[in-house]
What we know:
Elements: H1 4-11, H2 15-31, H3 40-49, H4 56-72, H5 82-94, H6 107-127, H7 130-149, H8 153-158, E1 164-167, E2 171-176, E3 188-193, H9 200-211, E4 220-222, E5 228-232, H10 238-249, H11 260-272, H12 277-284, H13 289-295, H14 303-309, H15 326-335, E6 342-353, H16 361-373, E7 379-380, E8 387-393, H17 397-417, E9 420-428, E10 434-435
Antiparallel strand pairs: 1-2, 2-3, 4-5, 6-8, 6-9, 7-8, 9-10
Helix pairs in contact: 2-4, 3-5, 6-7, 6-10, 7-9, 7-11, 16-17
Amino acid sequence: xxxxxxxxxxxxxxxxxxxxxxxxxxxxxxxxxxxxxxxxxxxxxxxxxxxxxxxxxxxxxxxxxxxxxxxxxxxxxxxxxxxxxxxxxxxxxxxxxxxxxxxxxxxxxxxxxxxxxxxxxxxxxxxxxxxxxxxxxxxxxxxxxxxxxxxxxxxxxxxxxxxxxxxxxxxxxxxxxxxxxxxxxxxxxxxxxxxxxxxxxxxxxxxxxxxxxxxxxxxxxxxxxxxxxxxxxxxxxxxxxxxxxxxxxxxxxxxxxxxxxxxxxxxxxxxxxxxxxxxxxxxxxxxxxxxxxxxxxxxxxxxxxxxxxxxxxxxxxxxxxxxxxxxxxxxxxxxxxxxxxxxxxxxxxxxxxxxxxxxxxxxxxxxxxxxxxxxxxxxxxxxxxxxxxxxxxxxxxxxxxxxxxxxxxxxxxxxxxxxxxxxxxxxxxxxxxxxx
Length: 436
């Protein structure tokens, strides 16, 4: 029988994370036949052996799993050794991979899909085909709500009727108990307005009324006979469902679309409509600017005009500056000392006990300061030790990001080792970048 302690410890980590970590350990120990506890050299060889077969993100996930296993078993963490970081850096250099991004579903395509769905619903109803009518009505609601609310696939399938309030002609408020970025399990409310066309509220109301739903998951499985299931659609079923729908609606290159296409499509529409980036981040639920920019395409509007504006007009005289003499260059070098560029980072942390039995809170806080912050000329900005300013060498953006990710890894490792839950946010003042 599972004790209350085990129940809460298991609940603190997502099931997907536990499964992926267990799979990673099995791959290292069984398939690759590595020995546990591992050495830093064996971990480095493991990375090298799979450099061409696994993506960089997968390799990082495998390292995180190995790090967690060693920490849980009380062994030294071999993944933090310099040789492992060098091998990972070398793999990124030799096997650079362009991030695959889903093609955004633009507004015209959303209209095309919605028009096809409305025609299909009308045809199904005229034939008395309840199964097709239910399926198309559900899909229309899912697509419109997923687009206009910018939901992730896991957020769509977690929606529950009892957590949704609809004000006819005004808008909708729904509460999600948890989502991908809700590491504190605090839950969050999402609002969506009623629209004059392509309205997600109308589509949702039509689906709930036709399916006669009152409680439980909003988007559910429907079998070939029109029986509605009690459980929600699976996250992995959304991509094939959407691609099948887009094919039927006449969209091209449907393999380039995924469930993220709805989210990316809305982000592009909002940006083109003049939304402020902070407003967009708050609406969609992005916590840092870097996450937001992954979804936003660079605007190509007026690109040629902006280039031409910077070119000299024909016939305009261009004054060339004389090249500096050797003596002036030497003199400048003599009086100018090389200064290593630095990035000023604001770090906010919050430490809490993993459970009532945890006793390492003070020690964890002290070690984070000593082992993670002091090397970067740490300055405390408050008496409670929750906000700090660090000066981190910044020879290049790539090296700065690498230092920041290494810093976050070290912080979370110290917190885990002392049975603490860490919340950390790093803000670079100059660029406005956020990491967490």
